[in-house]
From TrEMBL:
<dbReference type="InterPro" id="IPR000917">
    <property type="entry name" value="Sulfatase_N"/>
</dbReference>
<dbReference type="Pfam" id="PF14707">
    <property type="entry name" value="Sulfatase_C"/>
</dbReference>
<dbReference type="InterPro" id="IPR017850">
    <property type="entry name" value="Alkaline_phosphatase_core_sf"/>
</dbReference>
<dbReference type="GO" id="GO:0004065">
    <property type="term" value="F:arylsulfatase activity"/>
</dbReference>
<comment type="similarity">
    <text>Belongs to the sulfatase family.</text>
</comment>
<dbReference type="InterPro" id="IPR050738">
    <property type="entry name" value="Sulfatase"/>
</dbReference>
<protein>
    <submittedName>
        <fullName>Sulfatase-like hydrolase/transferase</fullName>
    </submittedName>
</protein>
<feature type="domain" description="Sulfatase N-terminal">
    <location>
        <begin position="37"/>
        <end position="346"/>
    </location>
</feature>
<keyword id="KW-0808">Transferase</keyword>
<feature type="region of interest" description="Disordered">
    <location>
        <begin position="462"/>
        <end position="482"/>
    </location>
</feature>
<keyword id="KW-0378">Hydrolase</keyword>
<dbReference type="GO" id="GO:0016740">
    <property type="term" value="F:transferase activity"/>
</dbReference>
<dbReference type="Pfam" id="PF00884">
    <property type="entry name" value="Sulfatase"/>
</dbReference>
<feature type="compositionally biased region" description="Basic and acidic residues">
    <location>
        <begin position="473"/>
        <end position="482"/>
    </location>
</feature>
């Protein structure tokens, strides 16, 4: 039997086909946007440029971080804003040079200042986007309540308020007892090296718990590990696991910790929608000798403005979005993390001026881009000690720390340093001289003049204690009313 469509129905059928086709096209071009990525940010303490097996470490290995580098991208020209604890963390959280927001050095216990709550942190930007926010580890941006993480955009906090060597067992200074902080409250005291040996495993367990509890919504997990800052300590399961002594054991445990967090992301089925960033706050504290790490041949270390202080490892992984196995040598900084993550997550930028530059397209693989042209090496309270443009670095005459010429300490005791060494003006070509050993200032007079002009712009904006200039655009830190 042959079936035919009545003529009176044919216009309706044609209209139905058109409507159906329109719905299909509409559905195709109006697919719901992918959910914003989770963000996991590891921030190590005093980990040097050469402290991973992928960057030359010897007598221990870091297989989880090596795998992360294979599955993601390594950025080998990555700088911290200042090579010391509090200043470095202020830059990461605000996207600003730390001297712009009034933070310098390493804040001690009961500091009357801290990160100003008026500054917008990365946690606050992501929280406004609906993210759950948690920090587990070292804060070090003020230990009074008004400066702690819960007042700076984080939903949860469990960690230490400052470096864990700021405790009664410090070899050369007196400090009050050190406590774990949960939220805004002190918990148990960290009394000895046995207690300190549980720091990494405790931070790891808290981070994993946060992932499990927030797997169904976007989250920002900040894990600023207190180690391998001295005093070095590790849990019983990792003692004697390396041939590098306690430092190698600590790095072995830290690598395992990162592996546990990465495994949890996979276990919860959220690995492919999670951006993972691994960096350090500054280079190694060289005068601690066998308890300190390696710069991989870069000059000087922590608390200096030479590359050994400012240049740190950076690995970023996001399957399907960040190219696997890539190495990028573009100049990037911790200040750039905030605007880059904010754009990726659809968050608004801070209302106040920042110094970070977003590099989402570079991150995703466009290596034709060079987002950052220059960098200011500020240190101490507000001293412009060097400036870099491209691969050229001009060091200004300044007093500063040097580790060179001094026998390093052993077994957790520091060796001597010269804190007022007078460094002369010098020009270095970092393309061929990353160790900053060959001063070519006499060969490049025009380049030196151009870099000095750029430095004057920095001094007008941020000031320079070396020239007694205050700068026009610095902001105040938070000041406690207690």
């Amino acid at each position: 039997m042959k079936f035919s469509i009545p003529r009176s129905y044919k216009p309706l059928l044609g209209a139905g086909i058109l409507v159906g086709l329109g719905l299909l096209l509409s559905a195709r071009f109006q697919q719901p946007a992918p959910s914003p990525p989770n963000v996991v940010l590891f921030f190590m303490d005093d980990l040097g440029y050469g402290d991973l097996s992928s960057t030359g470490a010897l007598e221990y290995t870091t297989p989880n971080l090596d795998r992360m580098a294979t599955e993601g991208s390594r950025f080998t020209n990555f700088l911290v804003a200042q090579a010391i604890c509090s200043a470095s963390r202020a830059a990461l959280m605000t996207g600003c040079y730390p001297n712009r927001v009034g933070i310098s050095g390493a804040l001690g216990p009961n500091s009357p200042i801290g990160l100003n709550p008026d500054e917008e942190t990365l946690a606050e930007l992501l929280k406004s986007r609906g993210y759950a926010t948690g920090i587990f580890g070292k804060w070090h941006l003020g230990d009074r309540k008004e400066f702690l993480p819960l007042q700076q955009g984080f939903d949860e906090y469990y960690g230490v308020p400052y470096s864990h060597d700021m405790w009664p067992l410090h070899p050369t200074a007196k400090f009050p007892p050190l406590y774990w902080i949960e939220g805004n409250e002190k918990k148990q005291e960290i009394k000895n090296l046995a207690d300190a040996g549980e720091i990494t495993s405790t931070v790891t367990a808290k981070a994993i718990s946060f992932i499990r509890r927030n797997k169904s919504k976007p989250f920002f997990l900040y894990v600023p590990h207190p180690l391998p800052h001295v005093p070095l300590a590790t849990s019983a399961a990792f003692r004697g696991k390396s041939k590098r002594g306690i430092f190698g054991d600590v790095l072995t445990e830290l690598d395992a910790s990162i592996g546990q967090v990465m495994d949890e992301l996979k276990k919860q089925g959220i690995d492919r929608n999670t951006l993972v960033i691994f960096i350090s706050d500054n280079g190694p504290w060289y005068n601690y000798g066998d308890h300190a790490g390696s710069t991989g041949g870069l000059r000087e270390g922590k608390a200096t403005t030479f590359e050994g202080g400012n240049r740190v490892p950076c690995i970023i992984r996001w399957p399907g979005m960040v190219p696997a196995g890539r190495v990028s040598n573009k100049l990037l900084t911790t200040m750039d993390i905030l605007p880059t993550v904010a754009r990726l997550c659809g968050a608004k930028m801070p209302k106040k001026r920042i110094d970070g530059i977003e590099w989402v397209d570079l991150l995703k693989g466009d290596d034709t881009l060079t987002p950052r042209d220059h960098f200011y090496y500020y240190f101490r309270k507000n001293s412009l000690e060097a400036i870099r443009q491209g691969d050229w670095k001009l060091v200004f005459a300044h007093p500063g720390r040097t580790y060179e010429g001094f026998l390093p300490g052993q077994d957790g005791k520091p060796g001597a340093t010269d804190e007022k060494h007078q460094f002369p003006m010098a020009l270095y070509d970092l393309r061929r001289d990353p160790g900053e050993r060959y001063n070519v200032i006499e060969q490049q007079p025009e380049l030196v003049a151009a870099l000095k002009k750029l430095a004057d712009e920095a001094r007008s904006d941020l000031g320079d204690d070396l020239q007694s200039l205050t700068g026009k655009n610095r902001r105040e830190p938070g000041r406690s009313n207690q």
